[in-house]
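Comment thread on ticket #2218

A.B. wrote:
> Attaching the input chain for the structure job we discussed in standup.
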Amino acid sequence: MIFARLTCAVALALGAAAETDSQCAMQLGTKAAGKSSAGVSVAASTEMWTFEDIFGHKDATAPAYGQAEVQEAPKPAVALAETDTKPVAALDATEKASTAHAAETAKPGNKAKESKAVAHAGASKGKGSANQTDYVVAMIESFLKKPLPPKNADVSETRPLVFMHQHRAGGTTMRKLLYNTSLALKMKPHIQCSGKVDCRAFKNTVTDAAVYGGEFCWREMMTSLSGKQVSCLTNFREPVARITSCYAQRLVLKKKVAPFCMAKLDPQKLKTLLVNYGCVNEPFRRLGQCGVQTHADATDKKARMQIWNSTLRNLAACVPVLVDKQDTYSAAVKHFPQFKQAFWQMKKERMNTNSYPKDCQIPGTHVAVIQELAAQETLLYEAARKRALAIHAHDSS
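C.D. wrote:
> Ran it. Output below, let me know if you need it in another format.
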């Protein structure tokens, strides 16, 4: 930890803020980090759901994820702080088939397929993972039964709307629409890359805005708004497509550490790059644990349960929108009616896809790597869709 704090201090002293995540701000003594934010209505404290909260009964043999959540992510090879630019998705026929399969398993009546998919996601994680996956499935089921977040039809400085932007999931467009709508409603926005707000303002220092938007860290963001009745909105995208888009935008265009043709990379090298450059498990990074990497797919049961616990707890306070599932936009429209025009406009947007030449298609071996890395996020993605539909059904009743 001392080494991590020193590394962050040196990086900031050298003006390397553009390459540091909000994890550094926490390590350098953010007073709010780790403290309870009792005044925030979205349960932004660091309290963890207990085993009894999740499963409905006590179990002395269960992992101790009722303790303080993991504070320090594994030391990354790269300090990361990125924002979306124009979407550059990259889906070939194989990925589209994967997306279709995910949608198929999410349909009512396909419990057998869904269970098989869940089991497969855990099976790839090594010894003991079957038991871990069982816990995650139970946690997701409990999450889906949690009370829905209260509707906010009167967004204001004291009842702000926070958009927790997930990278490569249409968030840049969402931020711009929220910014323009805020101005039209004469509300003060504090949104990355808009107005006078820097694109790398990952740590919030503003408390008088009505609408916030950016790639924030949940704990830091909600602590900065302690005492307010905060409402949360977040965006999801089918994980294989999102990770592939991250490869094209971050690794190829921005960092220039990978070739345009993914096939030129060794599959193991591809996996290393995607993990080290923060393209994996984005919702866990935003909603659960700050840092480039998370423990969502850890073989250590306790660490894995802790990140899943905190992520689900915080997601329970949000309205999720799946940018590739139009039926989820209705939840946001019903929940935040002042911004319905922004959401309807967002619904009309289409994620761009890259057309690769025949000699540059993504090989099946590489798709398999991405699918493996997307396994945990895929479980959360499907849970987020069910949650969005439940919110829409509730608000329509």
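A.B. wrote:
> Thanks. Noting for the ticket: The longest strand covers residues 231-236.
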